[in-house]
Amino acid sequence: MNSGQVHSGLVIVDKPQGWTSHDVVGRMRRLAGTRKVGHAGTLDPMATGVLVVGVNRATRLLTYIVGTSKTYTATIRLGQSTITDDAEGEVTSEVSAEVVSSEAIRTAVAALTGSISQVPSSVSAIKVNGERAYNRVRSGEDVVLQPRPVTVHSFDISEIRRLQGGVVQDLDVTVRCSSGTYIRALARDLGAALGVGGHLTALRRTEVGPYSLDQASTLEELAQDFRLLGIDEAARALFPVRELSDSEAQDLSHGRRIGASADTPAPSADHTDRPVAAFAPGGALIALLENRGLEAKPALVFAPGEAGA
């Protein structure tokens, strides 16, 4: 394949365990035959599931996808803490979880639901003075990141398994949360609240905004059939929609403002400054619009001949 054969759009990848998000982007560049590839939101190598990859002009949509809510399924182990807050790090403490009741677990989970202040894991990709936190930890530095506000929309337990006579307990959970929430940190904080420590042993992302595992393909499947969600379809799923007249489409394609839409939907909870996707009568994405008083200003313009490409 080359960039003349692969159009602009999104690829919903089911990321395999052991791969970094950068590894996946590298593979997508080879499959798509273009270097203009990026992803919306890093997944740790241990994690699997939905990684949204943008190809060609659709990379311009990625910044809006990053800010959407995410859904994960995960397994949290109580009774052990690790240096990385997940199963990839060495165990730093072990405290029997035998006395921890299911009721206590559910109470602690409820306290971590809603709007909370969360300290990200010290081995996150957050930059500290220009360097990734995980690199500082690996070099032996003691890194403590600043707390940040996040929202855990739901934190549901599907099963509690008592192992080794209850010395450790594994919780299978589903978490829907705002962008920037660390599931490893939820596992750590849940264990700390119960006094026994905790870490993440499995993580799978099932949804990123409107995109889900139902739409995802494995790398092996993509090598056989490069499934691309066209930029028009992707934008319709991601943004509120405005249908344009021919004259409005012509004006926007040249970067000119048009009249504001009276029925533009209110900003979403996922992304408060989300623009509106404006489509030509033929269905092609022309621009992303932002209302400015009585006018709608194009935030991003997609040339008419390229909108569906």
Can you describe this structure?
The chain has 309 residues and is an alpha+beta fold. Helix content is 22%, strand content 35%. The protein is built from eight helices and 19 strands. It has helices at 21-32, 62-66, 102-111, 133-138, 183-194, 219-224, 231-238, 246-253, and strands at residues 9-15, 37-39, 48-55, 70-78, 80-82, 91-94, 114-118, 127-128, 131-132, 148-163, 168-177, 198-208, 211-212, 229-230, 241-243, 258-259, 276-279, 285-292, 295-301. Strands 1, 2, 3, 4, 7, 10, 11, 12, 13 and 14 form a ten-stranded mixed sheet that branches. A five-stranded mixed sheet has the order 15-17-18-19-16, with helices on both faces. A hairpin with a 5-residue loop joins strand 17 and strand 18. The longest helix is centred in the N-terminal third of the chain and has 12 residues, at 21-32. 39% of the residues are buried. Residues 266-272 and 305-309 have low confidence and may be disordered.
Write the layout of secondary structure elements.
Elements: E1 9-15, H1 21-32, E2 37-39, E3 48-55, H2 62-66, E4 70-78, E5 80-82, E6 91-94, H3 102-111, E7 114-118, E8 127-128, E9 131-132, H4 133-138, E10 148-163, E11 168-177, H5 183-194, E12 198-208, E13 211-212, H6 219-224, E14 229-230, H7 231-238, E15 241-243, H8 246-253, E16 258-259, E17 276-279, E18 285-292, E19 295-301
Parallel strand pairs: 3-12, 15-17
Antiparallel strand pairs: 1-3, 1-14, 2-3, 4-11, 4-12, 5-6, 7-10, 8-9, 10-11, 12-13, 16-19, 17-18, 18-19
